[in-house]
Design a protein that fits this description.
heterodimer, A: mainly beta, six-stranded mixed β-sheet, five-stranded antiparallel β-sheet, globular, B: mainly beta, 11 strands
Chain lengths: 110, 116
């Protein structure tokens, strides 16, 4: 089993749709969680950190469920510019080692 | 303020050769992490440097080694290149404590290495 697993994708959605991504992690001692966005042939960029209480940033909402060991990302009112790969990131081993999921590709269509 | 810069941007090497990739962190950052990203995959953690020492390492063979200089810049060295080493190599800089959720890590645009 991979340490971090994401929805395989790709997700093809129309503009204005709501889309949700899930990510599961295997190490219950994991400490920190993030969602990164990566555009084609570009470097990953932080979208948002994920806190136990859940957090929201505009159209984006991230949630963490430690009991079930999964993280989710909800995107409301999808825009064409949201088309990208979304990477789930988990830190393990005392907080220094970071593990990326394979990413979920999102295509938003006009 | 320059962000994270990596050099070179592209590189072609022959199997068995050695390669050195370079990374200059964002101003004020003291921690550098290296990742390997194969096509269609997420970045795989290679190692992290802090205070000129390798602090943590992922599941990569000893052919992968690194160094951090007093000015916090870093190098990634790969010896005895294999075809499977072809990938995008990403460098991320941060203030110590990123993965504890304290600060954001910034990535460079990467070095695309092709081994033929």
């Amino acid at each position: 089993r991979k340490e971090v697993e994401q929805d395989p994708g790709p997700f093809n959605v129309p503009e204005g749709a709501t889309v949700a991504f899930n990510c599961t992690y295997s190490n219950s001692a994991s400490q920190s969680f993030f969602w990164y966005r990566q555009d084609c042939r570009k470097e990953p960029k932080l979208l948002m950190s994920v806190y136990s209480s859940g957090n929201e940033d505009g159209r984006f909402t991230a949630q963490l469920n430690r009991a079930s060991q999964y993280i989710s990302l909800l995107i409301r009112d999808s825009k064409l510019s949201d088309s990208a790969t979304y990477l789930c990131v988990v830190s393990n081993t005392g907080g220094f080692k970071t593990i990326f999921g394979a990413g979920t590709r999102l295509f938003v269509k006009a | 303020d320059a962000g994270v810069t990596q050099s070179p941007t592209h590189l072609i090497k022959t199997r068995g050769q050695q390669v050195t990739l370079r990374c200059s962190p964002k101003s004020g950052h003291d921690t550098v992490s290296w990742y390997q990203q194969a096509l269609g995959q997420g970045p795989q953690f290679i190692f992290q440097y802090y205070e000129e020492e390798e602090r943590q390492r992922g599941n990569f063979p000893d052919r992968f080694s690194g160094h951090q200089f007093p000015n916090y810049s870093s190098e990634l060295n790969v010896n005895a290149l294999l075809l499977g080493d072809s990938a995008l190599y990403l460098c991320a800089s941060s203030l110590d404590g990123w993965v504890r959720g304290n600060t954001e890590a910034f990535f460079g645009q990467g070095t695309r290495l092709t081994v033929v």
